[in-house]
Amino acid sequence: MITLTDVNKIFDTATNRITAVDNVNLTIGNSEIFGIIGYSGAGKSTLIRLLNGLEKPTSGQINIAGHELATVSAKELREARQKISMVFQHFNLLWSRTVRENIAFPLEIAGVSKEKRDKKVAELVELVGLAGREDAYPAQLSGGQKQRVGIARALSNDPEVLLCDEATSALDPETTDSILDLLTAINDKLGLTIVLITHEMHVIRKICHRVAVMEAGKIVEIGNVLDVFQSPKEQITKRFVSQITQTAGTEHALQHLKAESSEGTLVKLVFVGDRTEQPVLSTMIRRFNIDVNIVQGDISHTKGGAYGTLLLQLIGDKEKVTSAIEFLHNEGVQTEVIGHD
Amino acid sequence: MIETLLPHVNWEKMWIATVETLYMTAVSTLFTFVIGIALGVLLFLSSPGQLWANKLTYTITSSVVNIFRSIPFIILIILIIPFTILLVGSMRGPNAALPALIIGAAPFYARMVLIGLQEIDKGVLEAARSMGAKTSTIIFKVLLPESKPALFSGITVTAIALVGYTAMAGIIGAGGLGNLAYYQGFQRSRYDIVLVSTILILIIVFILQFIGDYVVRKLDKR
């Protein structure tokens, strides 16, 4: 659906030259929800703007749904854009138009008849859960409702690709979740490809199938969300993952625990996918007859399965503890001994 | 009673002068609105970073606007007399005042249009572009509707300035309340005529302001 080949984007200003996108190669499949995460200034905004031709690449090819965006004519670009919709951080609604008129706007641009527009708008209002608010003006809506209008507007031309530029960054956590649910529902129902950029790992975890991590214009890590969560390779990825699993907090807590817990063995377990749903622990306790103290634990649900970490204090006969750890290991649970008594 | 207080006021003449002032104001405001918006949109679109970013167009338009905005109106009327005669065939009467009024007010209004357009959120323009909108669509469906309150509060201010300009034009023979106040009132020391003319002009200004405020309030959905 989307292929980027050796894409570069360089901005020349009076005083210096900024490489915003540095030799990016990327393929995004049909009906995929693909996330791009990075801190501000990493080049992710420029990258997403390249994807609908708001910026032209300095070099390289961008192919989206059969259109070569780097070389298309102005007219073809306008047509292509009707199939590559965008949702914005600050909604960018026309305040002078009602909800209904805002959603109808792309259809007016595409020259769709009034009758068909009304029908489509009615469907979309229903889909995004804004029934009854059709005649309100954006100023009368909450942030979450505005973004629903933004999404409905983006869907009005039946696009093949939906680009979300920090679509939830201006919203509170609860509203963010409801908007993310809506995006997932749209992806399921309409099967369109969604590319979203964000600086929140929470967003990636909740709805993305795959993720690319950007730093200084480059994609430094890319993979299935679950894999990236389970074993982040780059330092920056680890930082993003820790936004959710809070291993940074754990590091600190560990020092305390090591100092305080005089007995037992401190073990960190990492469960991935199916393993989170099986009673491995109770089996272990029964079989090896040891005491287990749960120090800390959490489970993150990603689109590809669950991912959990558990910090245990195992108390009992030394040999039993060793074989218990071996048992866990054999069961496919990643184990890491952090401290002994 | 009124005759003793205002002995020299001829109400029929006063009425004719009022109609002339209203006529000059209305026609010149209408033309100023259209020309000012066209100039303002051109200025906006040709300014750096915009859709038609073009240094030459911007510099020329901007200079013309600035020059005509800077010439004092009373001098502008005299300067363009040959042009007025060419256009209207005479330099007397309400119609003869129109070219000067429009040339004087349109650049002034164009600046206000530009400011109004610059206040539109850049993201909204980008959104329209991202939907595949043509420039003409952006002008008529985004720029103008989104700046409506600014366009109408600007034309209100301009229309009120134009009432003042008609009075100045009156002094060089265009008719209207200014003409009446100056020739019939001031020059003959009939101050009752000056007073009544002034009150009528004030009423016109207040009504314009009232209508302008009302329209802007109705249009503003922000």
Distance between the termini of chain B: 52 Å
- Order of strands, widest sheet of chain A: 6-7-8-3-9-10
Distance between the termini of chain A: 55 Å
- Give the percentage of residues in beta strands of chain A: 25-35%
Poorly predicted regions of chain A are none
Q: What number of structural domains do the residues of chain B give? A: 1
Q: What's the gyration radius of chain A in Å?
A: 24 Å
H-E string of chain B: HHHHHHHHHHH
Rg of Cα set of chain B: 20 Å
CATH topology of the largest domain in chain A: Rossmann fold
Structural class of chain B: mainly alpha
| Secondary-structure arrangement, i.e. CATH architecture of the largest domain in chain A | 3-Layer(aba) Sandwich
Supply the CATH superfamily name of chain B.
MetI-like
Give the overall silhouette of chain A.
Answer: elongated
Chain pair forming the biggest interface: A-B, 27 and 21 residues
CATH fold description of chain B:
MetI-like fold
The overall strand count of chain A is 14
Structural class of chain A: alpha/beta
Listing every helix as H and every strand as E from the N terminus to the C terminus, the arrangement of chain A reads: EEEHEEHEHHHEHEHEEHHHEHEEHE
What quaternary form is this? heterodimer
CATH superfamily of the largest domain in chain A: P-loop containing nucleotide triphosphate hydrolases
What does this entry look like structurally?
- The complex is a heterodimer of chains A (341) and B (222).
- Chain A has 2 domains: 2-244, P-loop containing nucleotide triphosphate hydrolases (Rossmann fold), CATH 3.40.50.300; 246-339, Alpha-Beta Plaits.
- The model of chain A has no long low-confidence stretch (mean pLDDT 87).
- Chain A has a 6-stranded mixed sheet with strand order 6-7-8-3-9-10, sandwiched between helices.
- Chain A is built from 12 helices and 14 strands.
- In chain A, helix 4 (114-127) crosses helix 5 (143-155) and helix 5 runs parallel beside helix 6.
- Chain A has helices at 44-50, 74-81, 99-109, 114-127, 143-155, 173-190, 201-207, 225-230, 235-245, 247-260, 280-288, 318-330; strands spanning 2-12, 17-28, 33-37, 59-64, 67-68, 84-87, 161-165, 193-198, 210-215, 218-224, 265-272, 291-302, 305-315, 334-339.
- Chain B has 11 helices and no strands.
- Chain B is elongated and about 70 Å long.
- The mean pLDDT of chain B is 91.
- Chain B has helices spanning 2-5, 11-46, 55-70, 73-79, 81-88, 94-118, 122-130, 135-146, 148-174, 176-186, 191-219.
- Chain B has a single domain (2-219), classed as MetI-like fold.
- With 222 residues, chain B is mainly α.
- The A-B interface holds A 52, 54, 77-82, 85-86, 88, 90, 92-97, 105-106, 108-110, 137-139, 157 and B 121, 123-124, 126-134, 137, 141-142, 145-146, 148, 219, 221-222.
